[in-house]
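In full, the data:

***
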Amino acid sequence: MHLVMDASGRITHPGPTLVKMRPGQELKGKQFLDLFEVKRPHAILSMRDFRGIAPQKLHLKLRDAPHTALKGIMVQAGGDTDQIIVNLRFGISIVDGVRDFALTNADFAATDLAIEMLYLVEAKTAAMEASYRLNTRLQGAKIAAEEQAYTDTLTGLKNRRALNTVLNRLIEARSSFAVMHIDLDYLKTVNDTLGHAAGDHVLQTVARIMVDETRAQDLVARVGGDEFTVVLPDVRSEDILRRVGKRIIERLEEPMPYQGSDCRISASIGTVWIQSGDTPTLEDLLSDADVALYASKNAGRATQTLYTPELRDAANAVVPPGKDADRSA
């Protein structure tokens, strides 16, 4: 990238790369200082300011947009001629120059260090893109692994780990929320008579029903073989809880067809309603839900019980029936 000019600063020969950088302009015959602003040496306003044509290092800027910064060396041509040669380069602005003027390696001399710099920039860009793709895959794998760690593989619901995380967050926020602990009745009978594949089908159907009967912001989790928990944030009344529990129980009592047979189960629910400002421990909260659940079991199953402190007094007075016995009934 170069140009040749006479002692008055009139360009007599613009190099092809410079011509490409100023398409549509007639550079031959144009004054050097009309094309470039000299940043260094300072105070260059005319060719006389160069004080002779000893080799000089120049810092330049194109006067017309884009105002690309350039570096150059100005030298006197050999022989008796008064011609001056200015060899130009982009320096650290080479990436901007290549982009702004659509230059390629063909626009630079083979010995120009710009070629090496372009290769280095290209290599760096390729390395950064590869690193970005790798980081994206790793991030995706991390998210997938975390999601899997919080998901029950059979039903696609959240698991106990996810449940505990959500409950701890709600407790710390002193929010109003409710917890429904749901235990399926007669699932063992389905497994014994129709096989475990039928039992898995029932569990998957139960998961879909619970999701259908709750809101998008509610959490439905499978926390055991036949145990589920529903967390309902921002509950306004017991009536809402009773209606949700009633819908779930009624839906789960409907026959679930499987390979020509009907699977029949029911559900018992124990519900705890936490008021805004309450600060129960996670252990006490889940224990209260269990107490209410066993009250539903003792009441004949297929019912919902809301926790009260009196239920715990009754539970302490009577040893609750074993869950295995319940499920085999």
